[in-house]
TrEMBL record:
Segments crossing the lipid bilayer: 20-44, 56-77
Protein name: Putative glutamine transport system permease protein GlnP
GO cellular component: ATP-binding cassette (ABC) transporter complex
One Pfam family hit: BPD_transp_1
The organism's taxonomic lineage, starting at the top: Bacteria, Pseudomonadati, Pseudomonadota, Betaproteobacteria, Burkholderiales
Function: Part of the binding-protein-dependent transport system for glutamine; probably responsible for the translocation of the substrate across the membrane.
Family: Belongs to the binding-protein-dependent transport system permease family. HisMQ subfamily.
SUPFAM superfamilies hit by this protein: MetI-like
Domain called ABC transmembrane type-1: residue spans: 14-206
Subcellular location: Cell inner membrane; Cell membrane
Originating species: Pararobbsia silviterrae
NCBIfam families in UniProt: HEQRo_perm_3TM
InterPro entries in UniProt: AA_ABC_transptr_permease_3TM (IPR010065), ArtM/GltK/GlnP/TcyL/YhdX-like (IPR043429), MetI-like (IPR000515), MetI-like_sf (IPR035906)
Source domain of life: Bacteria
Amino acid sequence: MNPSALLIQSMPVLLTGTLLTIKFALLSMVFGLAAAVALALMGISANRWLVRAARVYVSVMRGTPLLVQIFVVYYGLPSLGISLEPTPAGVLALSANVAAYMSESMRGAILGIAQGQWLASYSLGLTRTQTLRYVVGPQALRLAVPSLSNSLISLIKDTSLVSVITVTELLRSAQEVIASTYQPLPLYLAAGAVYWVLCTVLEAVQRAYERKLALPQKH
């Protein structure tokens, strides 16, 4: 079968895998962002034990391969009596991993807000929690958008790793077609092209969103 015909025939399978890849990335981003905010708040807490716990978590997750983390969640947790299906196991591993990176982006953005913002809020009678929620948080999120967007782009590519636990995302879908056609080159190239298109679209959205959030230039 010539490559063009092969790709046309394989398109439904690859499209299904692509949709699952997007679903994986979005779910992992949502759960990861929630965990990242919690970790960032722990990291700036006055409680030294919370600070240390956040630092240890970030160090472990950033210092070990994502593939190992996926194996620990899917193959390791059953030894503790916790068995997960491939899809939730993959989402959990990806969320836990990306949370470590995004938490540092969020923590840095929060610390990047001028101290005067905190003092002004306190002088108005706002509590620390209210200051974070209404004053510092929105500004920090604006600053963190580029880093968070980059994390999502990386996450799109990292979803390919969950293929090792039989999740039929884009890469796994291509591998299944290859197993029956014995033509790896065009299918791997097609999968790579899809990843590239997804990342390119996200980069365009990121640039547009950054322009929208950009502060007015002084003249």
